[in-house]
Each structure stands twice: as structure tokens, then as C-alpha cells.
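TA notes, week 10

Several of you asked for a full example with nothing omitted. So below is the full record: C-alpha cells for the whole chain, then the designed sequence directly under it. When grading your own attempts, check the secondary structure regions first.
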């Protein structure tokens, strides 16, 4: 069973590879800001975190399902999205060093919530079929003794600029996180237990996705 990943996230790719899966990568090319703005205008209010990440995960999966490839897709196609929430405020990627520092000033020594949305589509000969989605949630607590020198050094690496919440648990940011309540892979951006449940809900077995050397 081939898994197609509608994402350009190195962290999601590494997570799947560690789980024995080499996905086919597809850039979904979704204008996230426009989609969110249009949806919020239609409903007349800001989107809740769960709704937001599932909306974007679905949009990415559906965009990838319609993308032109050299050969028709047959297998399962996954879209994902993540946001971090602290004090009721939704945070995506900071993009700039100043924004990353501002967020870390708020979150060090505190606990926030990471939401990861998943949307899985069954495809056969390039035609999308059944689809199912789910949102995974994990609470993340940050070190209260993170000093300014460490924070400056971390931001200077550029890592926190392009990840939801301005932190990682699978790379340089890991030592600055003291605890996680929930599935740790959720914080990476893709909950493996959640994905397994979605795969099984569509009538497939998880081991059929294993295609990397050493996984079989």
C-alpha cells in the first residue's frame, strides 16, 4: 500500500521514515491564509483550533489528490496541519526571529496545546474515494530555566522560524521541553497512532504501508 504525503514538512517525512514508511511527496500548493479568511468570513467568526487544522489538512489532501503526477495514484493520501495554542491564541509558524522570540517569552515555563489535523483519502488509479479525518491533541510544557543566551542561540539556528509554535521536540528544541501529555508524534506534526486508526478505518492494515528497508 503506497502512502502519498501532501506536505513539504521535513519533520513529517522523517517521522514516517522512522516508522518504516517511504511516502511519495506531493506539494499541495494551498493558499492557507486565503482559505482560512474565506471560511471565517463565511461562518462569521474565528475558527476553533480543531476546526482550523482539520480544514487545512483536508484542503491539502484534496489539492494533492487533484495534482498532476507522472502516473496515476493508487493508495492512501494524507494531508496534515498543526497549530499551537497558548492562552486561547492560535500560533502557526513565526517566520521571523522577532516573532519567534516574542512567542518564547510568553511560553517558557508554561504549558500550551498542540493540535494536529489529519485527512486521509483513499485513491485508486488517480480517482479519490473514501476519506476520513481526525485531530490529535497534546499538551506541551516548556522549561522555566531557559535563559536568554540559550534562547538567542536557538533562534539563531533558524529552526523555530518555520514550525508551528516556534519549537520542535525532534531536533534542537527538544531540551527546552520538560513534558508532553499525549502522543509525542502529534507535536512533530503527525500523530502516528491517529494515522494508524484512520488507515484501519478505511479497511487497511498498518503493516501494509511498511516499504522501507529494515521495516519488513
Amino acid at each position: 500500500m503506497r502512502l502519498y504525503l501532501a506536505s513539504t514538512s521535513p519533520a513529517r517525512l522523517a517521522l514516517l521514515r522512522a516508522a518504516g514508511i517511504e511516502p511519495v511527496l506531493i506539494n499541495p500548493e494551498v493558499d492557507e491564509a486565503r482559505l482560512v479568511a474565506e471560511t471565517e468570513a463565511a461562518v462569521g467568526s474565528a475558527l476553533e483550533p480543531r476546526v482550523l487544522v482539520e480544514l487545512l489538512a483536508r484542503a491539502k489532501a484534496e489539492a494533492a489528490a487533484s495534482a498532476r503526477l507522472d502516473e496515476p495514484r493508487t493508495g492512501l493520501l494524507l494531508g496534515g496541519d498543526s497549530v499551537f495554542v497558548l492562552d486561547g491564541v492560535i500560533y502557526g509558524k513565526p517566520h521571523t526571529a522577532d516573532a519567534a522570540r516574542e512567542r518564547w517569552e510568553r511560553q517558557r515555563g508554561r504549558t500550551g496545546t498542540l493540535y494536529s489535523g489529519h485527512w486521509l483519502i483513499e485513491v485508486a488509479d488517480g480517482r479519490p474515494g473514501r476519506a476520513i479525518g481526525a485531530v490529535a491533541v497534546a499538551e506541551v510544557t516548556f522549561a522555566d530555566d531557559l535563559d536568554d543566551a540559550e534562547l538567542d542561540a536557538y533562534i539563531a539556528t533558524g529552526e523555530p522560524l518555520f514550525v508551528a509554535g516556534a519549537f520542535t521536540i525532534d531536533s534542537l528544541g527538544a531540551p527546552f521541553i520538560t513534558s508532553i501529555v499525549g502522543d509525542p508524534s502529534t507535536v512533530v506534526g503527525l500523530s502516528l497512532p491517529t494515522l494508524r486508526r484512520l488507515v484501519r478505518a478505511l479497511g487497511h492494515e498498518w503493516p501494509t504501508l511498511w516499504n522501507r528497508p529494515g521495516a519488513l
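The longest strand covers residues 127-142. Use that as a sanity check on your answer.
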